[in-house]
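Feature request, filed as a ticket because there's no other form

It would be nice if the structure record came with a short human-readable summary line next to the tokens. Right now we just get the raw output. Example of a typical job, pasted below so the devs can see what we mean:
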Amino acid sequence: MNLIQAKSNVDLIIKSISRGRRGRERLMNMGIREGVIIRKLSQQPFRGPIILKIGNSTVAVGWRMAEFILVEEAGE
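Raw output as currently delivered:
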């Protein structure tokens, strides 16, 4: 499932990022890379940003970028 489809307030493992090189680099600079455990805090309505907790940091990811981040629940 992608980040948009994932439930909020659940630990998620990033499985892959299917974005171009520049998009991947941008996400990696925010700490979003394969194998990292994140928590989706909230999703704004009307294709607004998705708020993520990565370690001790909180970041916002746009709707288009979130479509390309494939995740899996950490408990699975």
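Something like this underneath would help us a lot:
The helical segments are 21-29, 63-66.
Residues 11-73 form a domain with the SH3 type barrels. fold (CATH 2.30.30.90).
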